[in-house]
Structures are given as C-alpha cells and as structure tokens.
C-alpha cells in the first residue's frame, strides 16, 4: 500500500474518539494501476478497542463515483457485541490544516462482524485534487477521525441531567450522550458552562429553533434515525430545518440524511432555491445533485429564465455549465459573457 503515516490519540469520553493522519503517495501510479472498484487496504490498526483496516479506492468504489476518490474503514476483528462507529475524512493542505469544504462525515453504522464497514464514496473529485496545490509530488494527506460507541442503556432508562428550553418548551437529555455526538454541544455543556459557573440541572436556552425541530434532533441523537413522517411536504420542510440545526450543532450524520431527503425534491421549480441553500450550508452532496440536474442545457436555460440571479451562482459553483449553455444558446452569450 502507499505509505500511510499516522499518529493516534484517544480523547476519551462516552465515545472513544481517535484521530489519524494518512499520507498517501504514488497517486498517479496507483490511479493507473487500479480500476474502478479496486482498493488498497492498510495493515490492521487499533482504534476504540477494535482492529480496523483503512481502504483507499483511487478510482472510486463503484461506477457511480468513478470520478471520485473513495475512503472506507472496515472492522478487522470480532466484537462481543455490536458497536456503532462513524468517521470524518478531511483533505489536509500542506500545512496539515483541513481544506475548507472538503471534510466529509459518514453516517452512523452498526458493526457486528468482521468486514463491516463505513466510509465515503464521494470523498473528493479526482480532477479537483489533481489541479490543486494539495497534491505534491504525487502525495496528498487525509485526516481521519473515528468515533466508536459501544452499546449503552436506552436513554429513557437513565436519569437525565440537563434541560433545554426551546420555544417555550422544555426537553430533558443526558450530557454525556449529547457531548459524544456533537462537539458544539460538548463545548456548550461543559466548557462554556464551567466558565459561567453553571451547574447540573440548569436550563440551557436554545434560540432560533422550533421546538419540534429540536425534538427531532434529539430523536436522531439517541436513535440515529428521524421520526416517521407520512406527508412528503412535511418531511421536506422538516429536513430543511433539521439541516440548519445539524449544521449549527455539527451533527454531520443528521446533515447527510437531510441532504438525501432534499435531493429527492430537486426539480425545475426548486433547484435554484435548493442550490443556494446547499452552498450556504456547505452541503456537497446536495450541491452536486443540483449541478447534475442542471447539466442539461435546456433545463439550465429554463431555470435561468425564471431566476436572473442563478447565473452568478452557477458561475461560482460550476462554471463549466455556463460554457455548455454558451454553446447551446447563442442568444444568451452576451448575458453569459458578464459571468466569465
């Protein structure tokens, strides 16, 4: 396997959290050597009391992501009881800092047998990496953080120790569970509270959020799922509100679920609004789905006809679409020229 240098650190808590840095070399050689769906696996290493193997797919894990690099981690040892694990993958710049907009969180997966895995099939476009300053002499660096949670008693069987007030309604929860799932809530519950002299039992006020949205957020924190909603319009509206909340509290698994729901709502009437929303909240999956929808020049032409400001946004997010529209519609070339 290409050289993988890493250092790990257990930061403790209710969930074991490990951070590693992988330096991947021989990019061009390996890209030519392996086909789509083929991988290179690292030797096993320990994280969260389990053995894992890191899988690198230089040409994507499947045909649907052949233009991307994929990363997965697989359980390499048996476990006595199922565990939950999730990860964050980040492209790092030469200084070792995450590249803005290129950190991806996986959803939470249960692992009960050897080979169970989770990861990111659309980690980064190969064209972006190859044209960037982050690929140096055929090497690039990826930061990886994994959180491993073993089975715990259901939350309704434990005594709650924190209360939130949201829109005039009170919600009880457990500090350790919330802190393990959200670094933002962890800071709010422990660090900020300690500075301000707060004690257990104090009520924390959450502004700018509807009570039903916070209730659904807590449901996800404890169950890794959303409450059932039978009405599609209600589901879409809740997904939009929840995505904003997930972005606010750094719940990337929840954010990804909401993106997937909103992807199903993309059409000529909604794509402009959803694309703006995706860019505002750095939703790569949702943004890419909007761009894919707009790749057909007649569709882009129709959407732009009803939204004059969309051209500027497309020019910033995917200028190649304007080039295709330029070739398709000569009457729009003067207007398009202002965007280049």
UniProtKB/TrEMBL annotation:
Pathway: Protein modification; protein ubiquitination
Domain MATH: 17-146
Gene Ontology biological-process annotations: protein ubiquitination
Gene3D superfamilies named in the record: Apoptosis, Tumor Necrosis Factor Receptor Associated Protein 2, Chain A, Potassium Channel Kv1.1, Chain A
Source species, domain of life: Eukaryota
Residue span(s) of domain BTB: 160-230
Pfam family membership, one: BTB
UniProt cross-references to InterPro entries, sorted A to Z: BACK_BPM_SPOP (IPR056423), BPM1-6 (IPR045005), BTB/POZ_dom (IPR000210), MATH/TRAF_dom (IPR002083), SKP1/BTB/POZ_sf (IPR011333), TRAF-like (IPR008974)
UniProt family annotation: Belongs to the Tdpoz family.
Protein name, UniProt field: BTB/POZ and MATH domain-containing protein 1-like
Organism annotation: Panicum miliaceum
Taxon lineage: Eukaryota, Viridiplantae, Streptophyta, Embryophyta, Tracheophyta
């Amino acid at each position: 396997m290409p050289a993988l240098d890493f250092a790990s650190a257990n930061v403790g808590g209710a969930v074991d959290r490990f951070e590693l840095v992988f330096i991947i070399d021989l990019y061009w050689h390996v890209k030519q050597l392996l086909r789509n769906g083929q991988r290179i696996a690292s030797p096993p290493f320990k994280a969260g009391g389990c053995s894992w193997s890191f899988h690198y797919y230089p040409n994507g894990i499947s045909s649907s992501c052949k233009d991307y690099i994929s990363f997965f981690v697989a359980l390499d040892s048996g476990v006595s009881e199922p565990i939950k694990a999730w990860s964050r993958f980040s492209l790092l710049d030469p200084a070792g800092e995450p590249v803005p907009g290129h950190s991806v969180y996986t959803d939470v997966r249960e692992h009960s047998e050897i080979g169970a895995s989770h990861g990111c099939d659309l980690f980064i476009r190969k064209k972006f990496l190859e044209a960037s300053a982050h690929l140096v002499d055929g090497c690039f660096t990826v930061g990886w953080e994994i959180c491993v949670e073993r089975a715990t008693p259901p939350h309704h069987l434990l005594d709650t120790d924190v209360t939130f007030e949201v829109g005039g309604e009170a919600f009880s929860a457990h500090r350790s569970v919330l802190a393990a799932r959200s670094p933002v809530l962890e800071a709010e519950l422990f660090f900020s509270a300690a500075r301000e002299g707060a004690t257990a039992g104090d009520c924390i006020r959450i502004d700018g959020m509807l009570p039903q949205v916070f209730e659904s957020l807590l449901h996800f924190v404890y169950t890794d799922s959303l409450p059932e909603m039978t009405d599609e319009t209600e589901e879409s509206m809740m997904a939009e509100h929840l995505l904003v909340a997930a972005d606010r509290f750094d719940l990337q698994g929840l954010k990804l679920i909401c993106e997937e729901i909103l992807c199903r709502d993309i059409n000529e009437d909604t794509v402009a609004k959803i694309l703006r929303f995706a860019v505002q909240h750095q939703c790569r999956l949702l943004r890419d789905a909007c761009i894919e929808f707009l790749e057909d020049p007649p569709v882009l032409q129709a959407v732009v006809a009803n939204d004059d400001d969309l051209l500027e946004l497309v020019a910033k997010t995917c200028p190649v679409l304007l080039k295709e529209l330029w070739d398709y519609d000569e009457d729009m070339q003067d207007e398009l020229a202002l965007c280049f």
